[in-house]
Amino acid sequence: MTKMHHCGWCRRPVELRGGRGRPKRFCSQRCRQWNWVAQNRANELELGEGELVMARRELDMLHDALYVLACAVDDTERDLVETKDDPRELRRIVQWLLDSARPLRDYEVSAPS
């Protein structure tokens, strides 16, 4: 069984491999670099470990995607109560939920400009 953890920057799954050396903390050199830049910038701004700076546009995009997902969950719960066991209707409901969840699954925090 392969052990997994998450990239220190983008949070994607990273496979933990046994053997020599330090465990891999990042999924790519790009993520390692952006983490280094972010740590240096946080030190300059004297941010605490649990604090971060995020662009308003990024935060708004996340809130919008969460709102769409919340509405899809509400719609799905309601539709499942109202729907008879029609496979086509159940497939449509699941597809709507998946379509609403994908933007969050695929979301990447953009690099600072």
Describe the overall structure.
The protein is mainly alpha-helical and 113 residues long. The protein has 2 domains: 3-45, no CATH class; 56-105. Helices cover 56% and strands 7% of the residues. The chain has helices at residues 29-45, 56-82, 87-105, and strands at residues 3-6, 13-16. The chain has a two-stranded antiparallel sheet. The N and C termini lie far apart (40 Å). The model has no long low-confidence stretch (mean pLDDT 87).
Question: What key phrases describe this protein's structure?
Answer:
single chain, 2 strands, 113 residues, flat, two-stranded antiparallel ribbon, mainly alpha, 2 domains
**Main beta sheet, described?**
2 strands, antiparallel
Mean pLDDT over the full residue set: 87
Along the chain, the helix and strand elements come as EEHHH
Spatial ordering of strands, largest sheet: 1-2
Which geometry do the CA atoms define?
flat
Number of H- or I-type helical stretches: 3
The first-to-last residue Cα distance is 40 Å
Low-confidence stretches: none
